Amino acid sequence: MEAGSALDPTPLKGFKDFYQYAGTTRVISGRNLLESTGFEFQKEGARRVFVVTDAVIRGTGLVERVEAGVVDGGLELAGVFDDVPQDSSTEVCDRCAATAKEAGADSFLAVGGGSVMDTAKVADAVFTHGGDARDQEGFYLMPRDDDGMGRPLEIAPLACIPTTAGTGSEVSMAAVIKVPDENVKIEIADFPLFPRLAILDPETTRTLPASVAAATGMDAMTHAIEGYVSVDWSPHQDARSLQALRMIRDNLERAVQRGEDDEEARGNMLIAANLAITIALGSVHAMSHPAGAHFGVPHGVANAIHLPHVIRHNAQGAPEIADRYRDVGEIFDVSGPEIGDALADHISGLTERLGLPTRLSQVGVPEDGIPALVEGAMGDGTTLLNPREMSEQDYAELYRRAL
Ligand SMILES: [Fe+2]
Fold it and tell me: What is the mean pLDDT of the chain?
């Protein structure tokens, strides 16, 4: 059941040998939706809601408004966990699950960015099935009926209200969590992790700092581009990726530069991030996960730094790969015989205009950190989905170029 292989001469076109596609989250998008949180979440089976967030979001007053919306809809508020750090860990997920249990909750509501939403997903799995967060690692390994052969068992109802426009975790079945003692990030993905409800309301990103809007927006950009060139591509995801790229082209710089004054751009970026997300990624994510785990480089910043280097490298791998980048380039009005270089230059220029760092040395990665990063990238699951086969030497070279 190989879903395409890097050795296949035409892995990126033709009739795909095999793929599956699912997107089971009910998405509601629009203005003034926070007050309807309870009304909407009740339809997904929630009664006693446990809110997962972080201290910064709580400080903005957003959580209070969501809580009021929960109670207005006739639901009970079981408790609030606001202790999620920027790079959440298995330990935090376990603590979150235990607190929800003690509070007698029956459902989870995440209000925050990727770290908060991923914490809520993993905590919900631990809350529902027991064990601890470390045990949840893996793809399609959650408990199933019929001795593991049947339908996956549902977890407690989960709703997500993203407060950044980037991760797309609110409509994905994956979570990425750090294991503190091992300096690695583990990935957990299975159908029950699709949140039942995602609420997209531009009010949630009104006070987002420009630097965070820029970094998370580049994460969405990376999802759209990597998803489109991944060996795990699919026509379903292609449609989403290309529309996400159009919306990012038209809204990302506006949302970053005008922030609070541009509700339309902020709302459209929330939708773009939603469209862009996929678990079919590639070497940009493979390189960024260890950069986060070892040196705390924020995920979106790491992606923005790595993306142009991976594009250049991949585009030289095969004409079919370059053709895929050509489709992406068309959206940005970028073309030329060396499409990898042209597109990479365009992305670097955008990253600079957004005010983000463009080199690893600017964000605390030392040259002698490269071997550990290479090891992490080689061991990352997304390496297998990159359209060009990657070696240790390739990664070492790409990290050196990014330094
Ligand atoms: Fe990402």
Answer: 95
The Å distance, Cα 363 to ligand 1 centre, comes to: 18
pLDDT tens digit sequence for 121-158: 999 999 999 999 999 899 999 999 999 899 999 999 99
For residue 322, what are its two tokens?
Answer: 């370059």
387 within 8 A of 317, measured Cβ to Cβ: yes
Say what the pLDDT of residue 5 is. Answer: 52
**pLDDT band at residue 8, thresholds of 50, 70 and 90?**
low
Q: How far is the CA of 290 from the centre of ligand 1 (A)?
A: 13
Ligand 1 centroid–CA 29 distance in Å is 22
Q: Which H helix or E strand runs over 99?
A: helix 90-102
How many angstroms separate the alpha carbon of residue 146 from the centre of ligand 1? 34
What are the phi and psi torsion angles at 35 (to 5°)? -70, -15
pTM over 0.90: yes
CA of 52 to the centre of ligand 1 (A): 20
pLDDT of residue 181: 84
Does residue 53 come out as left (phi exceeding 0), alpha (psi in the -120 to 50 range) or beta?
beta
Please write the tens of the pLDDT for every residue from 214-263: 999 999 999 999 999 999 999 999 999 999 999 999 999 999 999 999 99
pLDDT attached to residue 3: 41
Q: How far apart are CA 203 and CA 365, in angstroms?
A: 35
DSSP symbols for 251-315: HHHHHHHHGGG-HHHHHHHHHHHHHH--S---HHHHHHHHHHHHH---HHHHHHHHHHHHHHHHH
Question: How far is the centre of ligand 1, averaged over its atoms, from the C-alpha of 59 (Å)?
Answer: 25
Neighbours of 5 (CB within 10 A): 12
% residues pLDDT > 90 (the chain):
92
- Sequence-ordered strand ranges (E) for 26-173: 26-29, 48-52, 76-81, 107-112, 138-139, 158-162
State in Å: Cα 288 to ligand 1 middle. 8
299 CA distance to ligand 1 middle (Å)? 7
Angle at which helices 339-353 and 299-315 pack, to 10 degrees? 160
Compute the distance from residue 321 Cα to the ligand 1 centre, in Å.
21
Q: Name residue 197's beta-bridge partners.
A: 26, 159
Residues 6+ positions from 258 with CB-CB distance below 8 Å: 265
Distance 243 CA to ligand 1 centre (A): 18
